[in-house]
Amino acid sequence: MSLRLRHLLPLVVLVAMMAMLMLRGYVHSEILADYRIRPEAAADKVPQKVLDGGPVVDTRNGQQTSLSVPDHRIVLTFDDGPDPKWTPEVLDVLKKHHVHAVFFITGTMASRYPDLVRRMVDEGHEIGLHTFNHPDLSYQSKKRIDWELTQNQLALAGAAGIRTSLFRPPYSSSTDALDNASWPVTQFVGTRGYLTVFTTADSEDWRRPGAREIIRNSTPQGGKGAIVLMHDSGGDRHQTVQALDTYLPELQGKGYTFENLTEALKAPSAHTPVTGLDLWKGKAWVFLVEASDDITAVLVVGLAVIGVLVFARFGLMLLLSAIHTRRTRRKGFVWGPDAPVTEPASVLVPAYNEAKCIESTVRSLMKSEHPIEIVVIDDGSSDGTARIVEDLHLPGVRVVRQLNAGKPAALNRGIANARHDLIVMMDGDTVFEPSTVRELVQPFADPKVGAVAGNAKVGNKDTLIGAWQHIEYVMGFNLDRRMYDVLRCMPTIPGAVGAFRRSALDRVGGMSDDTLAEDTDITMAIHRDGWHVVYAEKARAWTEAPESVQQLWSQRYRWCYGTMQAIWKHRRALVESGPSGRFGRVGLPLVSLFMVVAPLLAPLIDLFLVYGLLFGPTGKTIAAWFGVLAVQAGCAAYAFVLDRERLTPLISLPLQQLLYRQLMYIVLLQSWITALTGGRLRWQKLRRKGQVAAPPGVAAATADGGAA
Amino acid sequence: MSTYPTDTTAELPELPQPQARTTVPEQQGSEQQGSEQQGTGQQGSEQQGAGQQGAEKTGAGKKGAGKKGGGRDRYFDLLRAIALFRVVFYHLMGWAWLPVVFPSMGVMFALAGNLMARSLATRPALGVVRGRLRRLLPPLWLLGAVGVTGMLVAGWGPEEEGHPGWWWLHLAYWILPLSDPPYGDALPGVHGLISDGWAGDLGVPLWYLRAYLWFVLLSPFLLRALRRLPWPTILAPVALSAALEFGALSVPGWRLEAQLSDFGAFGACWLLGMAHQEGVLRRLPRYVVPSLAPAVAGIGLWYALTHDLREGHDLDDMPFAQSLWSFAAVLLLLHLSPSWSEWPAGLRRWDRLITLLNSRAVTIYLWHNVCIGVVEALWDRLWGISWLETNASWVLESPWPQLPAIWLLTAACVICFGWVEDLAARRRPRLWPDGRVGAGTHRS
Prior knowledge:
The structure holds two protein chains of two kinds.
Chain A: H1 2-27, H2 48-52, E1 56-58, E2 65-67, E3 73-79, H3 86-96, E4 102-105, H4 107-112, H5 114-122, E5 126-129, H6 142-160, E6 162-164, E7 166-167, H7 183-191, E8 195-197, E9 201-202, H8 211-218, E10 226-231, H9 238-253, E11 257-258, H10 261-265, E12 271-273, H11 276-328, E13 345-351, H12 358-366, E14 372-379, H13 385-392, E15 397-402, H14 407-417, E16 422-426, E17 430-432, H15 436-441, E18 449-458, H16 464-487, E19 497-501, H17 502-508, H18 518-528, E20 532-543, H19 549-569, H20 578-601, H21 603-614, H22 618-642, H23 653-677
Parallel strand pairs in A: 3-4, 3-10, 3-11, 4-5, 7-8, 9-10, 13-14, 13-16, 14-15, 18-20
Antiparallel strand pairs in A: 1-2, 1-8, 6-12, 16-19, 17-20, 18-19
Chain B: H1 18-23, H2 26-40, H3 48-61, H4 65-68, H5 74-93, H6 98-101, H7 104-122, H8 125-153, H9 164-170, H10 198-203, H11 207-228, H12 230-245, H13 254-278, H14 288-305, H15 319-336, H16 351-359, H17 361-381, H18 386-391, H19 393-397, H20 402-417, H21 419-424
Helix pairs in contact in B: 2-3, 5-7, 5-16, 5-17, 7-11, 7-13, 7-15, 8-11, 8-17, 11-12, 11-13, 12-13, 12-15, 13-15, 14-15, 17-20
C-alpha cells in the first residue's frame, strides 16, 4: 500500500505543477484567448430609441430603456484593468482630486491583481465587468458569455468580496455603434441582470495622442453630462495619467462633478456584498491564481538553474574527458613506477541464482590473459548456481557457498578467501574480455591507486530499452567517469567490473551492507581514506541490462536510493580534514549536484516543453528542445567515438529524451520520497535471461549453447 | 454526413480450405510451426526471434512449408478486420482523424504484400499472379453486372462522356480494372430507396482494386528488387510521392496520375509487407524501427496539419502525408508483429466475427458504400414521421443509429453476393463463412 503511494506521489507532484502552469496560462490569456473583432454590421434590428438614446442601456426583464448622465456630471470609466503599474497611478490622481470613477475590470487581470481591485472599492470607485479575458462577445455562444461573466464575478468576489451589476462589452463604444451582431449580446446580458454601460466620449488614450488631445476628446460640449472612456491597462498609460492631472481640476473649475455611475444617476449602488460559499470560492480562486503565479516564477528560476547545470555539466565533461583521454592515450603512458603489473589477481564472482549466466561468466574468465584465480561465492542460490560451476571442473576455480546473506557479505567472504592482493570484483551476469583483468589491474602500478573502475558495456543493446541503456552507459563511462577521474571524485566502482587493492579494502573495513549501493559506499570510503580511484577504459566488461521497464525501475531505484544513502553516510567528510575533507568538499557536493539535485529539476524541462507547446511560442519551444537534443547528441557522439562504438544506436536518442529520461527522474523523485519518509527497500533481483554469453566479436564461451 | 469515397480497402484473404480448418485442430498448426523452428534454427543461439527468422528464410527454399501448417497469423487477421471495420465506419462518419488513428489502406496493402511475397516464395510467379486475378475479378464482375445494369437503367450511356467510342473502351475496365472503371456521375437515385450519386458510391472505391491489381502484376519484379536492394526499394515509392508532391515529376492524364499517386502513397506499405515476409525487418536491430518510425510519422502528421487537415480534406487527399504516415504506422505494426498462431484469450470471443470479416473482405469492401447510400436514403424518409422529428430528432440527425442498419444491410450483401468469392477461390460456396464447424449453411 505504501509502495503504491510512493509510485503515485511523484506523478501527483508533476501533475500538480502542470496544473499550476495551466492555470497561469489561463489567467495570462494564453488559453482560450480569442482576438477576433467583428467588423461593423447592419443596425436595422437595433431599436432606434436605443441607438439614439443614452449610454446606459437597461434591457433587464425585456425592457429597452436608456439612461443618460445628467448635465455637469461626468462619469470617468477605465477599461481593461487593473494593471500593476498604471492603475495605482490613475487611482492616485483620482484620489488627489477627490474624484470617483468606474473601472471595468477583466477577470484575468482582477485575478492577478486583487489588491488593486480592493483599493478601487475602498476608495469609492465602482466596478463593472469587462468579461474574463476580453473576447468579442458577438462571436461567442451564450454559454461562453455566461462563463465570461461568471468567471469575472468570481474574480471580483475573490478580490473585493462584492459582485456588480454593471457591464461593458469589450470593443464597444457609443450606443449608436450598436449593430445587429452586438445588440443580441446586450439583450442577453440584460436577461442576466446587468446594465450595459456604453460611452459618450472616447478619449482615444490608447492611441497615445498626447495629453492635450486626450483632454480635448474627453471634454463634453456645452455642459452636458458624459461617460468618458479611458484605459488604465493594455500598454503605456502615462499620457492618460498626465492628462487626468490637468483635466480633472480644469473641468471641476468649469463646474463639473466627477462621480461614479450610480452616484451620477442617483441610483442605489451597483455593488452587492458576496457572502458564504461564493465568497470562499472567489477567495480560493484568487489564492490559486496567486499561487500559480508564484510557483511559475519559482519554476522558471528552476528551469534556468537546470539549464545552466546541464550545459555546465556537458561543458565540463567534454573538457575533462578530452584531458583524460589525452593523458591516458599518450604514447608511452604508464600508470606508475611499478608498470607493468603482472602480479596475479583474485577474481570474485558473487552469484545469487545466476544459473543462466554463470557458466558464460566463468568461461570468459578462463580466457584471461592475466594470471588469476577465480572465486565464485554462491549466496545461497536455489537454482544450483554453485553446482553448475563445480560441474565444469575448471582449474583455478573455487566455489564458496554461504547461506543467503546479501552481496556485501558474499564479497567479504570472497575477500577472505582470496589468495592474492589484487582483488577484482564482477557480477555473475557479466562477461569479461580476455584482456579485461590485465587492463583493470594496470593502474595499480601507481601505489597511490586504491581502486579501479572498469568500462561496463551493455551486451543486449538490440532492443529499444537496451539501446537507451547502451547510450547511457557509454556516456556514463566515457564522459562522467573520465570527468570524475580527473576531479578525483569517482563516486562508484561499478559492481560489474572493478578492482581493489586488498590493503585499501582492509583499511576501510571491507564491504558494508549499510546502503543498497555497496559499490558506491566502498568507493567513497576508499576516497576518504586517501586513495586514488581511477578509470581504466580498456577494461571492458559486458553486462546484461534489464529488459523490462519494471526491472529497470527496481534496478535504478536501488542505485538511486543507494547513492543517496551513501552520500548521507559519508556526509561527515564535508567537515573533516585531510583527504577525507578534500573528497567531502569537492567530490560529495559535485556528486550530489549532478546525481541527486540536478535530476530533481529535470522534469521542468518537460513541464515547460508541454506548456510551451500548448500556449507558448510553439515554434521557439520546439526549436529550443531540438537545440538541447543536438547538444546532447553531440556529447553522446563524442562519447561513442571515444569508446570506438558504432553511432547507429544514437538514432534512439530523441525517443530516449521523450520516454526514458522521464522514467529516470520519476525513479529519482520516488527515491527522494522514500528517503524523506524513511522507507526501507528490499533487494530486488534482476531476472536474467543469459543473453550476454560473450563479448561481441568473440565466439560464445558456451559454444554448444548449454546455458540457454 | 455522406461518404468520402477516397478511402478504401479490401483484401483477398488466403483462407485455408474449410475442410482443413475443421479437421485440423489449432494445436497441430502450432506444433508444426514449432518443429519447423527446431529443424531450421541452426543459427538459433539467440531465442525465438532468430529461430523464426531461420524458419522464414529456409521457408523460401522448402516448397510449401509455410502453407502446410495452415499458419494463419491471427494478428494479421485482427489487423485486417480492424482496417475493414474502420473503412466502413469512416465512410459513414467522415471524420478526418480516423485515417490518422488507423491507416487502414496502408495496413491492408501491407498485409496483401506480405501474402503475395509468401506465395511468390513457394510458387512460380505466373501462377501466383493468375491465381490472384482469378480471385479478385469475379466479385468485381458481379458488382459490375448489378451496378452497370443499374446505371444503364438510370440513363447512363455511351453519350455520357461525349465520346461514345471511349466509353465503350473504358467499359472494359469493369472487366480488367487496369484503370478506374467508369460510372455515371450524376445519375438520379430512386427516391426514398437510394440517393442520388449512388453510382459514385459504387464506383469510387474501385480505385483500391485497380491499385491492388497493379501491385499484384508488379510484385514479381518488386520482390526481385527487394531482394537485391531492400531499403532503396522500400523507400522508392515514398520518394515518388515526394516527387509528385513537390512538382519534380508531372504526369499527363488523370488515369496515369491517379495510379502513380496511389503507388507512391501505398507502395512502401506493400513493399514493407513483402519485406516482413522476406525477413528484411528482422535483420535490423530491434531499436531501429521504434526509434525512426515515430519521427517519420511526426513529419507526415506535421505535413498534414500544416496543409489544412480537416473533415473533407484528410490524409486520403494528401498522398505525400499519407505515404509517410502509413509507412510509419505499418512499420510499427509489423515490428510489433507478435505472430499469433492462435488467438490470445481476450480476443478468442471475436474469432467468428473476425473470421467472417476476413473471408468476405472483398464483398464487404465492394458493397458497403452502396449500403451506406441506401441507409442514408432510408433514414431521410424518417423525417416524414413527425413524432420522431419533434421528440427524437437526434435519431434523425446523428449518424450513429445508422451504423447497425448499415452493417445489417452489408450482412445481407454478404449473403447475397459473398458466394462469388468462394467460386473465385474454387471452393464450395458458403453463405456465412465465420469459421464454424459445418458452416456451410447460414447459422445452421
